[in-house]
Amino acid sequence: MKPARFAYHAPATVEEALALLTRYGGEAKLLAGGQSLMPLMNFRLARPAALIDLNAIASLAYIREDDGQIRFGAMTRQRAIEFSPLVRRRLPLLAEATALVGHLPIRTRGTIGGSLAHADPSAEYPAILAALDGVVVARGPRGERTLRASELFQSYLTTSLGPDEMLVEVRLPAMPAGAGFAFEEFSRRHGDFAIVGIAAMVARQGDGCTARLVTAGAGPVPTRLRQAEEILEREGLSDAAIEAAARRAAELVEPDTDIHASAAYRRNLTRVLTGRALRRAVGRLEGR
Amino acid sequence: MSDHATPAQPSAARSWIGQPVKRVEDGRLLTGRGNFIDDHSPCSNVHHAAIVRSPHAHARILGYDVSAALAMEGVVGVVTGDDVAKLTKPFSVGVTAPVRYYCAATDKARFVGEPVALVVARSRYLAEDAAEAVVVRYEPLPAVVDVERALEPGAPVLHEAVGSNLAGHRRLVYGDPDRAFAEAEIVIRERFRYPKYSSTPIETYGVIARWDPLEGAYTLWSNFMGPFIMHPLTARVLGVPENKLRFIVPPDIGGSFGIKSSMYPYMALVALAARLTDVPVKWIEDRHEHLLASSSGTDRVAYRELAATKDGTILGMRYRWLDNVGGYIRSPEPGCSFRPTGNFVGPYRFQNLEVDASVVMTNKSLTGPNRGYACGHLYFETERMMDLLAERLGLDPVEVRRRNLIQPGQFPYRSPTGGLYDSGDYPAALEKALELAGYHEIRRQQAQARAAGRCFGIGVALAVDPSVSNMGYVATALDPQFRAKPEYLPKSGAVDAATIRVDPLGRVTAILATTPQGQGHQTVVSQIVADELGLTPEDVTVVDEMDTYTRFWSISSGTYSSRFGSVGTSAVALAARKLKTKLIEYAAHLMARPADELEFRDGAVRAKAGKGPSYSVKDLAGRAHWNTESLPEGMEPGLEASAVFGFTVSKAVDQHDCVNSSNTYGFIAEVMAVEVDPETAAIKILRYATVHDAGTIINPMIAEGQIYGGALHGLGGALFEELQYDDDGQCLTGSFMDYLVPTASEAPVIDIAHIVSPSPLTPLGSKGLGESSSMTVPAVIANAVSDALAPMGVRITELPMSPTRLWELIERAGQAKGAPHP
C-alpha cells in the first residue's frame, strides 16, 4: 500500500493547474480531497505520473447565490456545504444528501468538485446534480464549457472531461420554494456508499406538479427516471400514483450485481426507496 | 509447578479485585505513546521488505527472474521459493497427511496472496517498486474453493502427495448415538453454512529480524502473541537450536483476537531474508496483505441431526463438518474441528454424540484461531437446532433449553467428550438473561407487532465459554492407533508464570511473560498484587515485554484462548503469596516470634492477635536489601518470588477421544429482539441482553469491554464480514471497502449482567472472558431473525445474513406461499 513514484505539484492558481494538466498530457491527476484517489494510488490501481494538488488554490472554495443559482467552487468541502445556511435554505435536498456522504472525517476533506469528477455512481452528489438539473463548469485551454449531469457522466468513474480540462464550478438552481424533497439511501453500514439511493423532489406547478427522481447505485451513471416522474405529473401525488411510480422506477434501472448486492435486490431497493422518498417528499410538500 | 490451587478467598478480604480500576495502559495509548512493532527501532541499518504474492489461486511455479529487481535502486536482495526450499524446512502440521507447508510457496502457489518471493530494499517504497519487477513464471492450474466440491472426484488436487484435498478426517463417537437415533421420537436434520471471517486487528502483522552470523543466532521482534509452541517449530524450520532463536514482543500489540498466532511463517520468511541479505529486515504487513493472506476462521458446511423425545429431551446429536482450511493446513489447525472437543455438547445433558469431522484444503487463504476458535460455528449450529426442536414441538425456545440444561448440582460436570466443566449455574444465568431482557414483555410486544404485520423476532442462545486451551486437544485430530504407538509423545498442558519483586524502597514490580494485545494485563495484575500485598495498584509496576531469552515461558505461553483471566492471573496471585510468605518469615525472624503467630495484613506483617511491632513492606524491603545479615539463616537474599501455575486438569486425549480441551468453562446466556424490514431485509436490533458467568470478575470495566468487543465481532460474522472468493479463487474482499467490519455506528446497546460461580481450579476463582459473545451473537441473532420471519417460513441456516441473501429468502418464501398447490 505504497503508491508508485509520482511527481507532486501544488499550483496556487487555476491557470497554473491547467498549464500542468496540459504539460502532462493526461498523465496527471488532480488532487482535491483525496478521499478516493489516495486509496486508489496506495493500491497502485491509479498510477499517475504527477499529482496536481488543488488544495492551495483558495479561489476554488466558495458558496454563493447568483441570479437564482447557487454556485460552488470545485474545492468547496462537503462539510462546508453541510453547514451552509444558504444551502439549507435554497437547496435543502443537497443539505440532506450531504449528511449521508461517508463519515465526518471524509466530509471534512471531500469536495463537491472531486466527488462529481470522480463519478462514482453510488455517490450522492452525482445524483443530486442530475436531480437538481445543475451544471458543472469545466475550464480548459480552449476556455469554459458547462455540462449537465447527462453530459458529464459517461460510465463508472468516467466523465466527459478532457485530459486538459478541470472542473472549476458547480451551479445548482435554487429549489422552488416549498418544494418537497427527500434523499433515501440504503447502505450496509453507516457511511458506506449507497447500495441504492434515490433523490426525489416534488413541486407544485399550477394545478399540477413536477417531479424529479434520480437513482444512485442502480447503474453505471446516475439515472433520471423520467417515465416514473411522468406518472406523478400525470396522476398526481396520491399513494396509488407513488406506488405506480415506484414500480416503474424499478423497471427503468439497469443495476449490476456485485459482492454487496445482487441486481435483483438493487431493483427491489429502487422500488422501495423511491416509494419512501416520494412519501417523505410529498409529506414535506404538504407541510406534514 | 504448582499442582493445586488454593480455594478462592472470601471477597471481603479484597479491595481492588472487582473494582472498575481505570486502565493504566490507556494514557499512553490515547496520547500516541504506545510502543508497537512499527514504532520499534531495535537495531541500526534496518532494511525493509515487500512480499511478492501469487496472483493465482492455484499455479505451478516454473521459475523466477529477479535480475531486474536486483538492479533497482536501493535493493539489497531478493528471496524466492528456491531459497526457501533449499534453506528452510516445512512447518510441522497437525495431521499425518504429507502436507509440506513452507514459509513461502516453493513448488506451487495454492491461494491468491501466497508469498512467492520477498524483496529487501532501503525503504518500503523501493522494495515495493522492486517487488513489481520480480518475474515469476506460473503455469495456472484449475482452482477449487468450495469445500464440498473439493472432495468430489475430479476436483483439482492441491497437494499431489496427499492424493486428495482431505487433510484429515476423524469420526468421534461418544456414548451410543445410533441407539439414541433409533429410539428417538423426533429427529431433526439441517444443513448450515458458516462464513470465513477474520478479526482485522487495527495493527497488522509486523516482524523485524536480525541475523547474527558470529553467534549463529536470530533475533525476531514481532507482535506475535503466541502460542510459543511455534518457537521450537520455527527454530527447526530455520535450522538453528532453540537457544539461538530469540523472540521479543514489544510492550503494545494493537489487537489480535487469535489472528496473530498465525504469523509465524512470516517470522521465518523475514528471518531467512535477514540471513541472506545480511541486514536487519523489517516487514510491516499492509491491510490488503492482511485481508488476502493473514488468517481467518474456517468456512464450514455442517450437517446436523438431533434426536429427541416428544417432551423435548435431547437423546443425542450427530455433527458432520467440512472445515475449509485453505491452501495448506497450518498449525494449530485442525483446531477448527477439535478445539471445542470438551464442550462439544455445550450446556446440555445429552450423552450420545457422533462427530464426523473432515478438514479440507481448497484454494483460499489459510485459517487458524479467530476469537471464539470454532465455538461460533459450534453454537450457531447447536442453538439453531434447539430452536428447530422448539418449533417442531410447539414449545417456547427457552423451555426446550431449560429441559436439557446441566443442573447446578452436577458440577464439576464431566461432559461425555471429556470436558470438565469446573463450576456454573446455567439455569440461574438463563433466568437472569430473561429477566434482564424483559422476556415476557418483549414477547408481548412481539404479539402486538405481529398483529400489525411487523416482523419482530426474539432469539435466545446459550453457550459454555471455554477458556485456557489444553494443548493436548490438538492430538484429537490423530487416530487413537497413531497415538498408541510407543514413539508417540502425548501432549498436555496450560502453564503460565509470573515474577514479583520488591525494590529497596519497597515498591513492587511484577514481571509477566504474557503478550497482551489490549486486554489490560498491566491494570489487572496491579489490582491482584495490590490486594495480595495490601498496596494500591499505583504502587505496582507491571512489565510485560515477552523475551524468550529472559522470561520464563512454556509451550503454551502466549495470550490466546482467554488464558490470562484464568492462568495468567493465577500465576500472579501465587507469586504474590509466595512473596508474602517470605516476608512473614523474615519478619518473624526480626521479631523473634514463630511465623505462625504472624500474618500479612494491610500491607504489613503483624501479630495475628494482640499488639506488637509490625513491619511494613517498605521496612522489610529496606532491611532485606541493605543489610543481608538481617536475613534468617538459609533465606535467599532479595525479595523476589516467581510462580509457575499449571492446570493439573489438563490431560492428554485418551483412547476414547475424550479430552478436557480447556481448563475453565464459563457460561453465556443471551436474548436478543430484532425487527426485520421485509422490504429491504434490514435488521434492527431492538434489545440485546447478555449474562456471563466467568467466575470472579477482576475488573468489571475490562470485562464489559471484552463483552462489547466480542459481541461486535460476532455481529460482524453474522451480518457483515466474509472473505469472499470467486469460483477461480480470486479474493473479492481485499480492502475495507469490500470486507465490511461493523463500527461503533452498528453497535447495539448491550445490557450486561454477570453471575459468579468461582472456579475451584484457580486461586482467584476467575475464568477467561476474552472471547465471550463472539461465539453466541451469530446464534442469537440468527435465532431472532428466524423468529421474526417465522410467519413467512424463513429459517436462517447460513451466515452472514447480508441484505441480498436475506431478501432472497424472504422473496422465495413469499413465492412459495403465493404459489398454487400442485
Mean pLDDT across all amino acids of chain A: 97
**In what range is the share of β-strand residues of chain A?**
25-35%
Rounded radius of gyration of chain B (Å) = 28 Å
Specify the structural class of chain B: alpha+beta
How much of the sequence of chain B is in beta strands? 15-25%
Rg estimate of chain A, integer Å: 19 Å
Question: How are strands sequenced across the largest beta sheet of chain A?
Answer: 4-5-10-6-7
Question: Which CATH C-level class of the largest domain in chain A is it?
Answer: Alpha Beta
What's the story with the biggest beta sheet of chain A? Answer: 5 strands, antiparallel
| Gap from first CA to last CA of chain B | 72 Å
Query: How does the major sheet of chain B shape up?
Result: 7 strands, mixed
General shape of chain A? globular
SSE blueprint:
The complex is a heterodimer of chains A (288) and B (822).
Chain A: E1 7-9, H1 14-24, E2 28-31, H2 37-42, E3 50-53, E4 63-66, E5 69-73, H3 78-82, H4 85-90, H5 92-98, H6 104-109, H7 112-118, H8 124-131, E6 135-140, E7 143-148, H9 149-152, E8 153-155, E9 158-159, E10 166-173, E11 180-186, E12 196-205, E13 208-216, E14 223-224, H10 226-235, H11 239-252, H12 263-285
Parallel strand pairs in A: 1-3, 2-3
Antiparallel strand pairs in A: 4-5, 5-10, 6-7, 6-10, 8-9, 11-12, 12-13, 13-14
Chain B: H1 24-30, E1 47-53, E2 59-65, H2 67-70, E3 75-80, H3 81-87, E4 108-109, E5 115-121, H4 124-133, E6 135-140, E7 166-174, H5 177-183, E8 186-194, E9 206-212, E10 217-222, H6 230-238, E11 245-248, H7 264-277, E12 281-284, H8 287-293, E13 299-308, E14 314-326, H9 335-338, E15 352-361, H10 375-393, H11 397-402, E16 413-414, E17 420-421, H12 426-437, H13 439-451, E18 455-469, H14 480-483, E19 495-502, E20 508-512, H15 521-533, E21 540-543, H16 564-591, E22 598-601, E23 604-607, E24 615-616, H17 617-626, E25 640-646, E26 662-676, E27 683-693, H18 700-720, E28 751-754, H19 777-788, H20 803-818
Parallel strand pairs in B: 1-12, 10-11, 14-15, 20-21, 27-28
Antiparallel strand pairs in B: 1-5, 2-4, 2-6, 3-5, 7-15, 8-13, 9-10, 9-12, 13-14, 16-17, 18-26, 19-20, 19-25, 22-23, 23-24, 26-27
